[in-house]
Structures are given as C-alpha cells and as structure tokens.
Design goal:
Keywords: Signal. This is Thioredoxin domain-containing protein. It comes from Discostella pseudostelligera. The chain has a four-stranded mixed β-sheet. The protein is built from ten helices and six strands. The protein folds into two domains: 101 residues, no CATH class; 133 residues, 3-Layer(aba) Sandwich (Glutaredoxin). The relative contact order is 0.10. Helix 1 runs antiparallel to helix 3. The two termini are 54 Å apart. It is of the alpha+beta class and 261 residues long.
C-alpha cells in the first residue's frame, strides 16, 4: 500500500500540467476537422506516456461543423482528469497485484533444498561457495533424543556427505531435536564445515559410516533400534529403553545397510 502516495503525486503532476495549460487557453478560430483530429491525437499520446514534465505544450481541441470535439475549456479539463485517473488506476492495480504473485513464487534455494536435500551458501570466512544440507523436517521422539545424548556422551561419530540420500534419511530417523546431539562429520570437501582430512584418516569409504564409543563400527544407514543395540545403549539403559514401534513418520527411502560411495 506504500505505492499509492507516489502515484497520487504523479496524478497531481499530470492534472497540474493540464491546469496550467488550460489557464492560458483561449478559444481559437474554427479549424478543419482534420486539424482537430490531429490535436486530439497529440493530447492522447501525451497522456499515454505519463510524463508530465515533458508536456510543455498542449494543443487545445476545437469544435467544427457540429463535430463531437470538446467545445469548452471546462469540458476539456473534465475529460483530461477522467483519462488521467483511469490510467493511474490501471497502472496502480497492476503494480499492487504483481508483488503478491512474486511473493508466492518459491525461491530457487528452497526448491534446491526440497529436491536435492542441500543448497549453496557463501562461507563468510573464506568467501567460497559451500553446500549446506536442508533442515531436518521430522520431529524427534523422547527415546530418539535419549539415544542421541547417549551417543554424544560416548563420543560416537557419524561420517556423511551432504549429497547422500542415505545420510539425509539417517538424520530424519533421529529427527531435528535429537540429531543436534549427534557428532556429525562432513566428509565432502564441498560441504559446509568439511572435515575431509579426518574422514580420510579414519578410512571412511562410504556414507553414512558410524564409529561408536565402544569401539564398534558400522557402515550404511541404520534403523535407530540397530544403533541402540550396536552402540551399547540398550546394555546401558535396559532392553526396554527403546521401542521401534514408537518411531513413526519415517521417510520411505532405502533400506538398512545401504550407503553412498
């Protein structure tokens, strides 16, 4: 709605220009209908450009031989104001509705995050373009959060890559609240906060790869129940500490043990 005052100013300028011209207007001698038509066309062209500052001279229309041309300065001004108002209304309406359509359009990064699972950003420190994984959508269960906290306390680590669909699913299995406790290492050099050298030193050759605090290792995506078993969570907390039936809304991608190379 902030656009309107500017366009009312334009309307004011248009009308003011015609008022100034009309103030100096005097009836002219009858002329031919061809001259009257040319004058009317010139006025219409001036209005269509919406450039009041350039309208330094206006040819006043005259009537001749009973034609429908304007017969008085008052009528001339009335039609001028009516035309200007109509032009302003159409222009303002189109400008007001265009931003609404643009606002509904999905930004490119949002599309990339939805389709690919990651999107590019500029690293503030190095200025380089790096890839950031899309945000996790699924909410965590209480038992998933408890498992993630256990993994953190035992210094267990998940190695992955931003582009790997199995890594994306593994994160979704934990959920947004739980995964923030998981020690995650980005192995692709193009990824945000990449630790590719660490992955090379650890001999990581597939994603995701797990190295648990109890010394056990496992490659490929895993259901949370399997992680709870291998990591020692169930041994520590009890066999009833995790119920796989409580995990719902899991994305249907891949199967246990699959990985990206």
């Amino acid at each position: 709605m902030m656009i309107l005052p500017a366009y009312y100013f334009i309307l004011f300028a248009v009308v003011s220009s015609f008022l100034a011209a009309a103030a100096a207007w005097t009836p002219s001698q009858p002329s031919s209908s061809a001259a009257a038509a040319a004058a009317t066309a010139a006025s219409a062209a001036s209005l269509s450009k919406l450039q009041p500052a350039a309208a330094t001279k206006i040819i006043s229309p005259t009537c001749s031989n009973g034609s429908s041309s304007l017969s008085s300065r008052t009528e001339f001004l009335r039609q001028t104001i009516s035309t200007s108002t109509a032009i302003l209304a159409i222009t303002t309406s189109s400008l007001l509705f265009q931003p609404a359509a643009a606002a509904n359009a999905a930004p490119p990064f949002a599309i990339m995050a939805e389709e690919l699972g990651y999107f590019p950003v500029t690293d503030e420190t190095s200025g380089a373009t790096v890839m950031v994984p899309a945000k996790i959508k699924r909410h965590s269960t209480d038992q998933a959060i408890a498992l993630a906290k256990y993994l953190q306390s035992t210094k267990s680590t998940m190695y992955g890559a931003f582009w790997c669909p199995h890594c994306i699913r593994q994160k979704e299995l934990f959920g947004m609240e739980a995964f923030k406790y998981v020690n995650y290492v980005e192995c692709d050099i193009r990824g945000y906060k990449s630790q590719s050298a660490t992955c090379f030193e650890k001999g990581v050759d597939g994603f995701p790869s797990w190295k648990f605090g109890n010394g056990k290792q496992q490659g490929g995506e895993m259901e949370l129940m399997d992680i709870a078993k291998i990591s020692g969570f169930l041994d520590k907390k009890g066999m009833n500490a995790f119920d796989a039936n409580l995990e719902f809304g899991v994305p249907p991608l891949g199967s246990s043990g699959e990985s990206c190379q």
